[in-house]
Amino acid sequence: MKSILTFFTLCCFSFTWGQTSPKIYDIIDNISEDELRNKVQTLVDFGTRNTFSDTLSNTRGIGAARRWIKSEFETISNSCDNCLDVFYQKDFVTKEGNSRVPHDAWVVNVVAVQKGTKYPNRYIIMSGDIDSRASDTMDFTTDAPGANDNATGMAGTLEAARVLSQYKFENSIVYVGLSGEEQGLFGGKGLAQYAKNKEWDIIGVLNNDMIGNIEGVDGIIDNRTFRIFSEPTPPNETENQRRLRRFYGGEVDGISRQLARYIHKTTKTYLPEMNPMMVYRLDRFGRGGHHRPFNDLGFAGIRIMEAHENYTQQHQDIREENGIKYGDVIEHVNFGYTKKLTAVNAINLASLAWAPPAPKTVAIGGIVEASVKLKWDKVDGATGYKIYWRDTTSPTWDHSRTVGDISEFTLEGIVIDNYFFGVSAIGENNFESVVTFPNQIMR
Ligand SMILES: [Zn+2]
Question: Got the DSSP string for 242-292?
Answer without folding.
Answer: HHHHHHH--TT--HHHHHHHHHHHHHHHH-TT-EEEEESSSSSTT---TTH
